[in-house]
Specification:
It is a single chain. This protein has a domain of 240 residues: Rossmann fold, CATH 3.40.50.720. 36% of the residues lie in helices and 16% in strands. A seven-stranded parallel sheet has the order 3-2-1-4-5-6-11, with helices on both faces. Strands 8-15-14-13 form a four-stranded mixed sheet, covered by helices on one side. The termini are far apart. The protein binds NADP nicotinamide-adenine-dinucleotide phosphate and guanosine-5'-diphosphate (GDP). Keywords: Lyase, NADP. Catalyzes the conversion of GDP-D-mannose to GDP-4-dehydro-6-deoxy-D-mannose. It catalyses: GDP-alpha-D-mannose = GDP-4-dehydro-alpha-D-rhamnose + H2O.
Length: 363
């Protein structure tokens, strides 16, 4: 019989890719969405047309219900009526820098939200498997590199602290009640659907807009920060695999390769046809194009009170036990993001450019 899944955060980057994957596998997918004053279902338009828009294309196996991770009663109601085989908890206040401004709200939604959902499942009594979207930010000031499932946590933001609470509660429900509840310790993963306030998408959009003459320059924060960036489409496959495993286990999901924000900039701008060289240091560092125009500068406004400087994951366990591996390289990821932004900003008039040029660092 076809399985039923419930996804929180279906309107987000990962939720949209996961919904597509599960529908392709024959699932009935229930997605929980928040009521918003403007349409927030843009990322799932390909598989669902919101009632606010013309109902031209709709997969009947995808159903949306209103709800919020801050509201336990609605979670109870949905779990009782849907009785899902699998629950993917992807909903969260996901932005690290914003979490310093909204620490209590982030704790409520990103941390307590997970336990509200776990409680709803426990009370319902229906045997559902539960996936918690945990984060490499748990490691924060990591004591070793690369990090694996045994590396101690040292969260460095309210977001990471909230994720740590949700991580431990997920493990605790597994150990206390025998639930199939697992954590995917996901490293950063990106795509053309990544939110524009995250650094990769901010860069690819700016590179495309600058290449098209629609923007002069972009300001960024810490150019030295390094991340292990993968492709979101690959990471939702890891989520699904973890939920099909024989026994519930937590896994690191990562590529094992890191790049700095500066390096991401170099590749993205080169791909857009605006190769950069770097000059200056610290807050005076800037990326300059071949005509000598400053295209990238540093603005301390984008610095964080503390930083997870270098996160690199060791995904050996999921590779070995579940056969997962990333299918897209870093260059392919940057390429697909820049090309998508070029196409979107040029109204589809511009095709993908050829392979990116090499980056140089003159500073
Ligand atoms: P995203 O694009 O920011 O999406 C977040 C989703 O959560 C959106 O659908 C959002 O709804 C929903 N949401 C926010 N507040 C909510 C609330 N109070 N109740 C219910 N839903 C709420 O995030 P993502 O990149 O897809 O990430 C998915 C999950 O993986 C998140 O939990 C994130 O923390 C975690 N994660 C992501 C990464 C990464 O690199 N992408 C890495 C590690 C962990 P609206 O659309 O209405 O805002
Ligand atoms: P995070 O790893 O979940 O915090 O994802 P982000 O994409 O928001 O940030 C990744 C890294 O890029 C962090 O170390 C940030 O400090 C760094 N960064 C540098 N400049 C920026 C910027 O302008 N915006 C964001 N969001 N991050 C930046």
């Amino acid at each position: 019989m076809a399985k039923t899944a419930l996804i929180t955060g279906i309107t987000g980057q990962d939720g949209s890719y996961l919904a597509e994957l599960l529908l392709a596998k024959g699932y009935t997918v229930w997605g929980m969405i928040r009521r918003a004053s403007s349409i927030n279902t843009g990322r799932i338009d390909g598989i669902y047309r919101s009632p606010q828009r013309e109902n031209t294309h709709r997969d009947a196996r995808l159903r949306l219900v209103y709800g919020d991770l801050a509201d336990g009663s609605v979670l109870n109601r949905h779990v009782k009526s849907i009785r899902p085989d699998e629950v993917y908890n992807l909903g969260a206040q996901t932005h690290v820098k914003v979490s310093f401004e909204l620490p209590v709200y982030t704790g409520d939604v990103t941390g307590l939200g997970a336990v509200r959902l776990l409680e709803a499942l426990r009370e319902c009594g229906h045997e559902s498997r539960f996936y918690q979207a945990s984060s490499s930010e748990l490691f924060g000031l990591a004591s070793e590199s690369p990090q694996n499932e045994q590396t101690p946590f040292h969260p460095r933001s309210p977001y990471a602290c909230a994720k740590a609470y949700a991580f431990h509660l997920t493990r605790n429900y597994r150990e206390s009640y025998g639930m199939f509840a697992v954590n995917g310790i996901q490293y950063n993963h990106e795509s053309p659907r990544r939110g524009e306030a995250f650094v990769t998408r901010k860069i690819t959009r700016a590179a495309a807009a600058i290449a098209l003459g629609q923007q002069e320059t972009v300001s960024l924060g810490n150019l030295n920060a390094e991340r292990d960036w993968g492709y979101a489409g690959d990471y939702v496959k890891a989520m699904w695999l973890m939920m099909q495993a024989e026994r519930p286990q937590d896994y690191v999901v990562a590529t094992g390769e890191t790049h700095s924000v500066r390096d991401f900039c170099c590749r993205a701008f080169a791909r857009a046809g605006v190769p950069l060289t770097w000059h200056g240091e610290g807050v005076n560092e800037h990326g300059v194009d071949q005509a000598g125009r400053v295209r990238v500068s540093v603005d301390p406004e984008f610095f964080r009170p503390v930083e997870s400087e270098c996160l690199r994951g060791d995904a050996s366990r999921i590779r070995r036990e579940l056969g997962w591996a990333p299918e897209h390289t870093f260059d392919e990821l940057v390429g697909m993001m820049v090309d998508a932004d070029l196409a979107a900003l040029s109204g589809g008039r511009r095709g993908a450019p050829s392979a990116g040029k090499r980056c140089s660092n003159a500073a």
